[in-house]
Amino acid sequence: MQVAIIGVGLIGGSLAIGLKESGFASRVVGVDNSSENLDKAVRRRLIEVGLTLEEAVESSDLIIVSTPVDTLITLLPAILNRVGQQVVIEVGSTKERVLDAVRQHPNRGRFVSTHPMAGTEYSGPEAAIPHLFDEKYTVLCETEHSDTDAVALVERMYEALRMKLVYFNGKEHDVHTAYVSHISHISSFALALTVLAKERNEARIFELASTGFSSTVRLAKSSPDTWIPIFRQNRDNVLDVLDEHINQLSLFRTLLIKKDFETFYQRIAEANSIKKIIQ
Fold first, then answer.
1. CA-to-CA distance for 279 and 273, rounded, in angstroms?
2. Over the range 128-156, which residues count as b (16 or more CB within 10 Å of their CB) and which as e?
3. 169: number of CA atoms within 13 Å, CB side?
4. What is the pLDDT of residue 278?
5. How confident is the model over 130-147, as pLDDT tens digits?
6. Residue 49, beta-bridge partner list
7. How far is CA 127 from CA 8, 15, 46, 211, in A?
8. Residue 251 — pLDDT band, cuts 50, 70, 90?
9. Which of 190, 214, 231, 244 has the largest count of CB atoms under 10 Å?
10. What's the half-sphere exposure (Cβ side, CA atoms, 13 Å) at 235?
11. What is the largest CA-CA distance in the chain?
């Protein structure tokens, strides 16, 4: 099976590695606006060759679109215009607007909307790594609107990557990801800016940054090219969870002002219950 990766970055490149290593794909080709990215992907043997979009769609059995979510709105309909029996998927972090963009397309059945919940703070083909998806979850959205054989192929693909499958509609997906992913990135960006504003001596930051700080702020290294489109598309849900996050921070501030460390203790103990969800 030939797989085309549209957007050979962290996710697209890691998919290429996993699909070839698992034996799911016999050949992987790439498409990218950046010729430099394509050259890197070929040199790293993520893909066999770089092609034009038209060449990749025409010659491939499965087309994986791994580009910033804003581009999906116009790119997906353009790709679906060119397919026959090929299957097209996207791996974006937002879903409602993407699904709306293809809802009435005559080839909608050949499309499956997915979101593998895996990644790092790095970007580009040089960030692609093996086993990124092992034992992680992937969301398949509104599969009732996709052809049965297309869904079956995509399920087999993610199972080959050793991923666990869950099924949501677009609205559910965007609400849940706002809470478990998108707010985490905003918090990390804000913390990084707070530390940089208060600690002008970067050497001191480096010396004192232990594992706790590094793990908390690592998402602040994520690319704005990736995250601004996500925040734009999921703005309302992100605002909802951000308001609650600000309320919680304000409460901690009030407890510190009042020196109410007994309630502070209780709040931390309550927060510890997250371990029931995250091991």
1. 11
2. beeebbeebebbbbbbeebbeebbebbbe
3. 5
4. 65
5. 999 999 999 999 999 999
6. 29
7. 10, 12, 11, 21
8. very high
9. 231
10. 6
11. 67
DSSP 27: E
Q: Could you tell me the CA-to-CA distances from 98 to 65, 234, 275 in Å, in that order? A: 12, 11, 33
Going 161 to 71 to 143 to 167, the CA torsion angle's sign is: positive
Q: What is the pLDDT of residue 195?
A: 84
Going through 103-229 in order, the beta strands assigned E by DSSP cover 111-116, 137-141, 164-168
Q: Which of 272, 58, 81, 62 is nearest to 152 (CA)?
A: 62
Q: Which two tokens stand for residue 196?
A: 């940089």
- Residue type for 175, please? V
Structure tokens at 87: 């299957």
CATH number of 173-276: 1.10.3660.10
Encode pLDDT of 23-72 as tens digits: 999 999 999 999 999 999 999 999 999 999 999 999 999 999 999 999 99
Q: pLDDT digits over 82-122, tens only?
A: 999 999 999 999 999 999 999 999 999 999 999 999 999 99
Distance between CA atoms of 11 and 154, rounded to whole angstroms? 16
Q: At what angle do helices 69-80 and 224-233 cross, to 10 degrees?
A: 80
| Domain range list for the chain | 2-168, 173-276
DSSP state of 183: H
Contacts of 58 (CB under 8 A, 6+ apart): 82
pLDDT for the residue 200: 72
| Paired residues of 3 in beta bridges | 28, 62
- How does DSSP classify residue 65? E
